[in-house]
Each structure stands twice: as structure tokens, then as C-alpha cells.
């Protein structure tokens, strides 16, 4: 009986150690501005190179698709609604991606060059939104 009691006390004592099994090392809770900053041009490039490139290309008549093609029917017929995925995806990449990261960088950085670069990128994001979405 003493052996079972001793074994149960040892088991409880060993298991009550402070283990960080619920902490994910791949998802840090606090990051520096130097790690957030590279995501800003990436979000802007995703918006400009994805939907806004095709959208602007058809309006500027840089290219046209053949009538039997079905890839860009909505764009070539200028069939846009407020819930169009083409513009909405680009809007989300700029607003929820780049602009949110810019605000994080401006709040966390002490480096003036990062602050000025974030301000210039913020102005460019707003220019893209005004030019393409009237926001």
C-alpha cells in the first residue's frame, strides 16, 4: 500500500511541472516592427498584381479577350457590382493587410526611417484605394 501511495505522489509531483505545451513557438505573441514591415509591400503587391492589374488593363484597353473566351467575362463586359470579388479581394489586401500592418509598425518602431517609409506606403495605399475604389 505504501508503494502505491508513494508511486501516486511521485506521479502527481512529476506531472505538476510547468510545461509550455500550449505555447506555439511558430505563432509569436509579440513581434518587432522589423518583422512586420516586409509584409506591407507584399500586401500592396498582392493587391496591385492581382485584381487591380486585370481591372485597370481592361479599362485602359491594354488587352482584349476573344469572344469565345470565358476567363475574364465580368471584366471585359465591365460587369462590376459592389460585392465583386475582383475589387473586394484587392480592397481587403490593402485595408486589412497593408494598412493594419502600417499602423502596427508606426506604433512599435523607434526607427525614424521605418516610420517615414511606413508613412509613404500608407499614402500609396490610400492613393490606390481612391483611384480604384473611390474610398
Automatic annotation (TrEMBL):
Keywords: Signal. Residues 1-16 form the signal peptide. The keyword Signal applies. This is Starch-binding associating with outer membrane. InterPro entries: TPR-like_helical_dom_sf. Transmembrane segments: none annotated.
